[in-house]
Write a structure and sequence with these properties.
49% helix, two-stranded antiparallel sheet, 10 helices, 2 domains, mainly alpha
């Protein structure tokens, strides 16, 4: 059987997920995603030959398997969903296709809805942005509220969830909410906000405890 030449590609999710990448890095990212779809998990040699010196921010979007090869988890899931979809079509074909009504039309489900197994574009991995914002409001009650979720903010959420997972994102929000420094107890009475926390450099600093209350030293660069 020939390699499947296609896969569902969620353009909005891609743009949101790489909003903090340069155009060159986005080119590297999409190239590696396409290579993974066609060739499977990627060795370091394949990556170097394909995109040259890969950006560290791009490489963070891939994880390594037991053999040290790189793959993007979301792409892996979409490949599997596509294979399952194709298999349902093959199975239905071997059975003579979907049952027909007397008028020759395919039978629907009893509730009138199509079979969920045949809906290829169902995105089970969609991030509930509003839920994350609501958790921010509850975990960081002294910080400014999020009035609107623009594409940039959605992109930051996508990137952090893809890199660290939803539980780590919520953990970082909790750490930020408990930080006296990030809640205005500093020499400028400055407070962090949601977008500041979700930016890649700031997120790592909070995660590593650089703004925790037991840190006695002043942390420079908190306005970046």
């Amino acid at each position: 059987m020939a390699k499947d030449p296609a896969i569902l590609f969620y353009t909005g999710d891609f743009l949101n997920g790489c909003i903090d990448l340069t155009l060159e890095e986005r080119g590297q990212y999409i190239t590696l995603l396409c290579l993974q779809h066609q060739k499977g998990h990627l060795s370091e040699k394949t990556i170097r030959l394909s995109v040259g010196s890969v950006s560290a921010d791009v490489l963070k979007k891939f994880i390594q398997d037991n053999e040290g090869n790189f793959f993007n988890k979301r792409m892996e899931e979409e490949i599997e969903k596509r294979l399952q979809f194709i298999q349902t079509r093959i199975d239905n074909g071997l059975k003579g296709g979907r049952p027909k009504k007397a008028n020759g039309k395919a039978n629907a489900k009893p509730n009138g809805k199509p079979n969920a197994k045949l809906i290829e574009n169902e995105n089970e991995n969609r991030i509930e942005y509003k839920d994350i914002v609501e958790r921010y409001h509850s975990l960081c009650p002294e910080m400014n509220k999020v009035a609107a979720l623009n594409e940039q903010r959605k992109g930051f959420i996508n990137s952090r969830v893809e890199e660290y997972g939803i539980e780590k994102v919520l953990e970082v929000l909790k750490i930020a909410g408990e930080s006296e420094f990030l809640n205005g107890k500093n020499d400028k009475s400055w407070k962090a906000d949601f977008e500041w926390i979700m930016r890649p450099t700031n997120f790592i600093k909070v995660m590593e405890g650089k703004y925790s209350n037991n840190e006695n030293k002043r942390v420079d660069g908190y306005y970046e």
